[in-house]
Write a structure and sequence with these properties.
By secondary structure, the protein is mainly α. The chain has a domain at 2-27 and 88-262. It is built from 13 helices and no strands. It has helices spanning 2-14, 18-23, 25-56, 58-71, 75-103, 105-116, 128-149, 156-159, 162-181, 186-195, 197-212, 222-226, 228-265. Helix 7 (128-149) packs antiparallel against helix 9 and helix 9 (162-181) crosses helix 11. The longest helix has 38 residues, at 228-265. The termini are far apart.
Protein backbone atom coordinates (compact mmCIF):
# COMPACT_ATOMS: atom_id res chain seq x y z
CA UNK A 1 0.00 0.00 0.00
CA UNK A 2 2.89 2.36 0.72
CA UNK A 3 4.29 1.74 -2.75
CA UNK A 4 0.85 2.35 -4.27
CA UNK A 5 0.27 5.66 -2.48
CA UNK A 6 3.83 6.86 -2.97
CA UNK A 7 3.64 6.30 -6.72
CA UNK A 8 0.20 8.00 -6.80
CA UNK A 9 1.26 11.34 -5.36
CA UNK A 10 4.49 11.35 -7.37
CA UNK A 11 2.47 10.85 -10.57
CA UNK A 12 0.30 13.84 -9.62
CA UNK A 13 3.37 16.02 -9.12
CA UNK A 14 5.00 14.91 -12.37
CA UNK A 15 1.80 15.62 -14.29
CA UNK A 16 2.38 19.38 -14.07
CA UNK A 17 5.99 19.25 -15.24
CA UNK A 18 6.52 21.37 -18.37
CA UNK A 19 8.08 18.40 -20.14
CA UNK A 20 4.98 16.28 -19.50
CA UNK A 21 2.65 19.06 -20.62
CA UNK A 22 4.65 19.48 -23.82
CA UNK A 23 4.57 15.75 -24.54
CA UNK A 24 0.77 15.73 -24.26
CA UNK A 25 0.29 18.06 -27.23
CA UNK A 26 1.25 15.57 -29.95
CA UNK A 27 -1.36 12.89 -29.01
CA UNK A 28 -3.93 15.66 -28.55
CA UNK A 29 -3.28 17.13 -32.01
CA UNK A 30 -3.28 13.75 -33.78
CA UNK A 31 -6.42 12.41 -32.06
CA UNK A 32 -8.29 15.70 -32.48
CA UNK A 33 -7.41 15.88 -36.18
CA UNK A 34 -8.60 12.29 -36.72
CA UNK A 35 -11.86 12.84 -34.80
CA UNK A 36 -12.69 16.15 -36.46
CA UNK A 37 -11.76 14.86 -39.91
CA UNK A 38 -13.93 11.76 -39.59
CA UNK A 39 -16.74 13.87 -38.16
CA UNK A 40 -16.53 16.32 -41.04
CA UNK A 41 -16.78 13.62 -43.71
CA UNK A 42 -19.04 11.02 -42.04
CA UNK A 43 -21.14 12.76 -39.34
CA UNK A 44 -24.27 13.33 -41.41
CA UNK A 45 -24.12 9.89 -43.00
CA UNK A 46 -23.69 8.21 -39.61
CA UNK A 47 -26.59 10.13 -38.06
CA UNK A 48 -28.82 9.33 -41.02
CA UNK A 49 -27.93 5.63 -40.86
CA UNK A 50 -28.66 5.44 -37.12
CA UNK A 51 -31.94 7.34 -37.52
CA UNK A 52 -33.06 5.03 -40.32
CA UNK A 53 -32.13 1.96 -38.28
CA UNK A 54 -34.14 3.20 -35.29
CA UNK A 55 -37.17 3.86 -37.46
CA UNK A 56 -37.09 0.39 -38.99
CA UNK A 57 -37.22 -1.28 -35.57
CA UNK A 58 -40.86 -1.24 -34.58
CA UNK A 59 -40.33 -1.59 -30.83
CA UNK A 60 -37.67 1.12 -30.73
CA UNK A 61 -39.77 3.46 -32.86
CA UNK A 62 -42.76 2.91 -30.56
CA UNK A 63 -40.63 3.59 -27.50
CA UNK A 64 -39.27 6.78 -29.07
CA UNK A 65 -42.79 7.94 -29.90
CA UNK A 66 -43.85 7.29 -26.30
CA UNK A 67 -40.82 9.18 -24.93
CA UNK A 68 -41.43 12.00 -27.37
CA UNK A 69 -44.76 12.63 -25.66
CA UNK A 70 -42.92 13.38 -22.40
CA UNK A 71 -39.72 15.03 -23.62
CA UNK A 72 -41.15 17.08 -26.46
CA UNK A 73 -41.20 16.96 -30.23
CA UNK A 74 -37.46 17.50 -30.57
CA UNK A 75 -36.51 14.40 -28.62
CA UNK A 76 -36.42 12.09 -31.64
CA UNK A 77 -34.08 14.43 -33.51
CA UNK A 78 -31.55 14.32 -30.66
CA UNK A 79 -31.48 10.56 -30.12
CA UNK A 80 -29.59 9.61 -33.30
CA UNK A 81 -26.73 12.14 -32.86
CA UNK A 82 -26.32 11.14 -29.22
CA UNK A 83 -26.14 7.47 -30.20
CA UNK A 84 -23.47 8.27 -32.79
CA UNK A 85 -21.46 10.08 -30.11
CA UNK A 86 -21.96 7.18 -27.68
CA UNK A 87 -20.67 4.70 -30.26
CA UNK A 88 -17.74 6.93 -31.22
CA UNK A 89 -16.53 7.57 -27.66
CA UNK A 90 -15.04 4.07 -27.11
CA UNK A 91 -13.03 4.51 -30.30
CA UNK A 92 -11.88 7.95 -29.17
CA UNK A 93 -10.82 6.52 -25.79
CA UNK A 94 -8.96 3.62 -27.40
CA UNK A 95 -7.16 5.85 -29.89
CA UNK A 96 -6.17 8.27 -27.10
CA UNK A 97 -4.75 5.40 -25.05
CA UNK A 98 -2.80 4.02 -28.00
CA UNK A 99 -1.34 7.42 -28.84
CA UNK A 100 -0.31 8.04 -25.23
CA UNK A 101 1.20 4.55 -24.99
CA UNK A 102 3.18 4.99 -28.21
CA UNK A 103 4.14 8.67 -28.07
CA UNK A 104 4.27 9.54 -24.37
CA UNK A 105 4.87 6.46 -22.22
CA UNK A 106 8.51 5.77 -23.25
CA UNK A 107 9.43 9.41 -22.63
CA UNK A 108 7.55 9.47 -19.31
CA UNK A 109 9.25 6.28 -18.13
CA UNK A 110 12.63 7.78 -19.06
CA UNK A 111 11.75 10.93 -17.12
CA UNK A 112 10.91 8.93 -14.00
CA UNK A 113 14.11 6.94 -14.32
CA UNK A 114 16.28 10.06 -14.77
CA UNK A 115 14.86 11.79 -11.72
CA UNK A 116 14.30 8.89 -9.30
CA UNK A 117 16.35 5.89 -10.47
CA UNK A 118 19.38 7.22 -12.39
CA UNK A 119 21.42 4.07 -11.72
CA UNK A 120 18.71 1.62 -12.82
CA UNK A 121 20.10 -0.59 -15.58
CA UNK A 122 18.21 -0.91 -18.86
CA UNK A 123 17.94 -4.58 -19.81
CA UNK A 124 15.59 -4.16 -22.81
CA UNK A 125 13.30 -7.10 -22.12
CA UNK A 126 10.84 -6.25 -24.92
CA UNK A 127 11.12 -4.51 -28.26
CA UNK A 128 9.18 -1.40 -29.23
CA UNK A 129 7.37 -3.14 -32.10
CA UNK A 130 6.26 -6.04 -29.91
CA UNK A 131 4.95 -3.60 -27.31
CA UNK A 132 3.09 -1.69 -30.02
CA UNK A 133 1.55 -4.86 -31.44
CA UNK A 134 0.58 -6.06 -27.97
CA UNK A 135 -1.06 -2.72 -27.15
CA UNK A 136 -3.03 -2.84 -30.41
CA UNK A 137 -4.30 -6.36 -29.74
CA UNK A 138 -5.35 -5.54 -26.17
CA UNK A 139 -7.12 -2.40 -27.37
CA UNK A 140 -9.06 -4.39 -29.98
CA UNK A 141 -10.04 -6.93 -27.31
CA UNK A 142 -11.27 -4.11 -25.08
CA UNK A 143 -13.31 -2.61 -27.93
CA UNK A 144 -14.92 -5.99 -28.57
CA UNK A 145 -15.75 -6.19 -24.87
CA UNK A 146 -17.33 -2.75 -25.05
CA UNK A 147 -19.46 -3.71 -28.05
CA UNK A 148 -20.57 -6.98 -26.47
CA UNK A 149 -21.51 -5.41 -23.13
CA UNK A 150 -23.01 -2.19 -24.50
CA UNK A 151 -26.64 -3.47 -24.41
CA UNK A 152 -26.47 -4.04 -20.65
CA UNK A 153 -25.20 -0.50 -20.07
CA UNK A 154 -28.85 0.53 -20.05
CA UNK A 155 -29.11 -1.10 -16.62
CA UNK A 156 -27.99 1.76 -14.30
CA UNK A 157 -25.89 -0.25 -11.79
CA UNK A 158 -24.01 -2.10 -14.53
CA UNK A 159 -23.26 1.12 -16.40
CA UNK A 160 -21.30 2.33 -13.35
CA UNK A 161 -19.09 -0.76 -13.27
CA UNK A 162 -18.65 -2.40 -16.67
CA UNK A 163 -17.05 0.41 -18.74
CA UNK A 164 -14.52 1.47 -16.05
CA UNK A 165 -13.58 -2.18 -15.50
CA UNK A 166 -12.98 -2.70 -19.22
CA UNK A 167 -10.94 0.51 -19.58
CA UNK A 168 -9.12 -0.28 -16.33
CA UNK A 169 -8.14 -3.75 -17.50
CA UNK A 170 -6.98 -2.34 -20.83
CA UNK A 171 -4.96 0.44 -19.17
CA UNK A 172 -3.31 -1.95 -16.72
CA UNK A 173 -2.37 -4.42 -19.46
CA UNK A 174 -0.88 -1.74 -21.71
CA UNK A 175 0.74 0.67 -19.26
CA UNK A 176 2.24 -1.85 -16.81
CA UNK A 177 3.92 -3.76 -19.62
CA UNK A 178 5.23 -0.62 -21.32
CA UNK A 179 6.60 0.75 -18.04
CA UNK A 180 8.83 -2.32 -17.69
CA UNK A 181 9.57 -3.04 -21.36
CA UNK A 182 12.82 -1.08 -21.61
CA UNK A 183 14.27 -1.59 -18.12
CA UNK A 184 13.36 -5.11 -16.96
CA UNK A 185 14.38 -8.34 -18.60
CA UNK A 186 11.78 -10.97 -19.44
CA UNK A 187 12.05 -12.83 -16.13
CA UNK A 188 11.89 -9.66 -14.04
CA UNK A 189 8.91 -8.37 -15.98
CA UNK A 190 6.98 -11.60 -15.53
CA UNK A 191 7.77 -11.72 -11.82
CA UNK A 192 6.66 -8.13 -11.19
CA UNK A 193 3.50 -8.45 -13.27
CA UNK A 194 2.63 -11.64 -11.38
CA UNK A 195 3.48 -10.55 -7.84
CA UNK A 196 1.97 -7.08 -8.22
CA UNK A 197 -0.97 -7.95 -10.48
CA UNK A 198 -3.64 -6.81 -8.01
CA UNK A 199 -2.11 -3.38 -7.21
CA UNK A 200 -1.49 -2.86 -10.92
CA UNK A 201 -5.08 -3.81 -11.71
CA UNK A 202 -6.27 -1.43 -8.99
CA UNK A 203 -4.29 1.40 -10.59
CA UNK A 204 -5.91 0.52 -13.91
CA UNK A 205 -9.43 0.51 -12.43
CA UNK A 206 -8.90 3.86 -10.69
CA UNK A 207 -7.66 5.41 -13.92
CA UNK A 208 -10.53 3.67 -15.71
CA UNK A 209 -12.99 5.56 -13.54
CA UNK A 210 -11.03 8.75 -14.14
CA UNK A 211 -11.20 8.01 -17.86
CA UNK A 212 -14.99 7.72 -17.64
CA UNK A 213 -15.25 11.24 -16.21
CA UNK A 214 -14.78 13.09 -19.54
CA UNK A 215 -17.80 11.19 -20.88
CA UNK A 216 -20.00 13.14 -18.48
CA UNK A 217 -19.61 16.31 -20.53
CA UNK A 218 -21.90 14.68 -23.13
CA UNK A 219 -24.61 14.08 -20.53
CA UNK A 220 -26.12 17.54 -20.98
CA UNK A 221 -28.05 16.45 -24.04
CA UNK A 222 -28.73 18.56 -27.10
CA UNK A 223 -26.69 21.57 -25.98
CA UNK A 224 -23.48 19.52 -26.27
CA UNK A 225 -24.29 18.67 -29.89
CA UNK A 226 -24.27 22.38 -30.78
CA UNK A 227 -20.65 22.64 -29.62
CA UNK A 228 -19.72 19.12 -30.72
CA UNK A 229 -16.35 19.95 -32.39
CA UNK A 230 -15.21 21.94 -29.36
CA UNK A 231 -16.49 19.27 -26.97
CA UNK A 232 -14.65 16.54 -28.90
CA UNK A 233 -11.34 18.38 -28.52
CA UNK A 234 -11.99 18.93 -24.80
CA UNK A 235 -12.83 15.25 -24.37
CA UNK A 236 -9.66 14.12 -26.13
CA UNK A 237 -7.57 16.51 -24.04
CA UNK A 238 -9.10 15.11 -20.84
CA UNK A 239 -8.50 11.54 -21.98
CA UNK A 240 -4.89 12.42 -22.82
CA UNK A 241 -4.34 13.91 -19.37
CA UNK A 242 -5.89 10.88 -17.65
CA UNK A 243 -3.81 8.39 -19.62
CA UNK A 244 -0.64 10.46 -19.11
CA UNK A 245 -1.32 10.37 -15.38
CA UNK A 246 -1.86 6.60 -15.52
CA UNK A 247 1.41 6.17 -17.44
CA UNK A 248 3.25 8.15 -14.76
CA UNK A 249 1.57 6.18 -11.99
CA UNK A 250 2.51 2.85 -13.57
CA UNK A 251 6.05 4.07 -14.27
CA UNK A 252 6.67 5.14 -10.68
CA UNK A 253 5.18 1.93 -9.30
CA UNK A 254 6.84 -0.45 -11.75
CA UNK A 255 10.33 1.06 -11.62
CA UNK A 256 10.21 1.23 -7.83
CA UNK A 257 9.15 -2.42 -7.70
CA UNK A 258 11.94 -3.31 -10.13
CA UNK A 259 14.52 -1.49 -8.00
CA UNK A 260 13.36 -3.37 -4.88
CA UNK A 261 13.42 -6.68 -6.75
CA UNK A 262 16.99 -6.21 -7.89
CA UNK A 263 18.09 -5.03 -4.45
CA UNK A 264 16.59 -8.15 -2.87
CA UNK A 265 18.26 -10.40 -5.47
CA UNK A 266 21.76 -9.03 -4.88
CA UNK A 267 23.89 -11.26 -2.64
CA UNK A 268 24.67 -9.90 0.79
CA UNK A 269 28.20 -8.50 1.07
CA UNK A 270 30.62 -10.75 3.00
CA UNK A 271 31.42 -9.68 6.56
CA UNK A 272 34.64 -7.73 6.96
CA UNK A 273 37.60 -9.80 8.10
CA UNK A 274 38.57 -9.64 11.73
CA UNK A 275 41.65 -7.51 12.35
CA UNK A 276 44.82 -9.46 13.12
CA UNK A 277 46.83 -8.51 16.21
CA UNK A 278 49.96 -6.53 15.44
CA UNK A 279 53.18 -8.58 15.44
CA UNK A 280 55.60 -5.86 16.59
CA UNK A 281 53.99 -5.31 20.00
CA UNK A 282 55.88 -7.18 22.80
CA UNK A 283 53.81 -9.41 25.04
CA UNK A 284 52.72 -7.88 28.33
CA UNK A 285 55.09 -8.35 31.28
CA UNK A 286 54.01 -10.72 34.02
CA UNK A 287 53.82 -9.21 37.48
CA UNK A 288 56.63 -10.16 39.87
CA UNK A 289 55.54 -11.24 43.31
Amino acid sequence: MRLLLNSFWRALVYLVFPRVIGLSFLPLVIASALALGLGYFYWEAAVAAVRQTLETWYLVDSALAWLEGFAGSGFRAVVAPLLVVAMALPVVIAVSLLLVALLMTPALVSLVRERRFPHLERRHGASFFYSMLRSLVITLVALVGVLVTMPVWLIPPLMLFIPPLIWGWMTAQVMAYDALADHADKAERKQILTEHRWPLLLIGIVTGYLGAAPTLIWAFGAITLIFAPFMIVISIWLYTVVFAFSALWFAHYALDALTRLRAAAEPAPPPPPEPEPPHDVPPPLLPIY
